[in-house]
Amino acid sequence: MKKALFTLAAAVLCLCAQAQNTSTDSLSQQVDSLQKVISQLSNKVGATEEADLDQQIWKDRAKFFSIGIGKQTLTDMDVDGVKWDSELAISMLWGRTYYFPKKAWFGMLKLGIDFAWMDMSYAKYKDFSETEMQPTGGTYDWGSGYPSYYEEDDDDLDLGVWQAEYAMRLGPSITINPVHHLKAGLYAHFVPTASAISMNDEVNVTFVPNFAFGGSIAWKMISVGFEGRWGKAKYNSFSVNDEGTDSWYDEGEGSLDDVVTSEKSRLKTKQFRFFLTFRF
């Protein structure tokens, strides 16, 4: 009898242990499945957040509009020592950057092609009526106030000394995004420019192959930067001939060629400016 009871008890214990092992295995499988689901969801959320951040950093910041202010000089290459300094130099730029590759190198570096369809600039130079020309070893410095023999007749046409330009831009850039929305970049641009320069009673116009180099630091849509720009060309210069004008009005003779004279002059421009850019 005792032997039978002992055998029965052992059988019950075996069944209970087997049932417990089965239950433990089932619970473990459920936990593993839940962990896999959680991991997959986390990966999807992380990928979505990364894609959204990439969209905000690169694609949503591809277009740019900037305004700049700086210092500009104009040099006459035909007359040694003749140079104008600006008292005002402003600019406005509008364009877009095309980034590649699609996925940033090392998670933070991209190259770009910058294209600007509008680059407008204006510089007002110090007027000669406020400068003085003094000899310095065969050349001249332009200071403050002409000597009397350089003063112009009040009746002469005086348009002031200024420079207005309209240009387009194309060139490479490199941008690094070390953390979150912070970016820093460098660029080099070819700037084909239509340039017009007024020199008191003379107007100069031509096409100038300018070049620009600069850099910027950006946080989200706002960036600040600097730029150097330079170029030189042979301008078509037009001026009014006073004697021809007098003949035209007083004697009723002469032609337009007698009134307006033209020649060539070589001029060089340099500019350094700081700018504020909005990217969107």
In short:
The chain has helices at 2-57, 242-251, 256-259; strands at residues 63-76, 83-105, 109-125, 133-136, 139-142, 161-179, 182-199, 202-219, 222-240, 260-279. By secondary structure, the protein is of the alpha+beta class. The strands form two sheets. It has an eight-stranded antiparallel β-barrel. A two-stranded antiparallel ribbon has the order 4-5.
SSE arrangement:
Elements: H1 2-57, E1 63-76, E2 83-105, E3 109-125, E4 133-136, E5 139-142, E6 161-179, E7 182-199, E8 202-219, E9 222-240, H2 242-251, H3 256-259, E10 260-279
Give a verbal description of the structure.
With 280 residues, this protein is of the alpha+beta class. The protein folds into two domains: 1-57; 63-126 and 157-279, Porin (Beta Barrel). The chain is 25% helix and 56% strand. It contains three helices and ten strands; from the N terminus they run αβββββββββααβ. The chain has helices at residues 2-57, 242-251, 256-259; strands at 63-76, 83-105, 109-125, 133-136, 139-142, 161-179, 182-199, 202-219, 222-240, 260-279. It has an eight-stranded antiparallel barrel. It has a two-stranded antiparallel sheet with strand order 4-5. A hairpin with a 2-residue loop joins strand 6 and strand 7. The protein is rod-shaped, with a radius of gyration of 37 Å. The protein starts with a helix and ends with a strand.
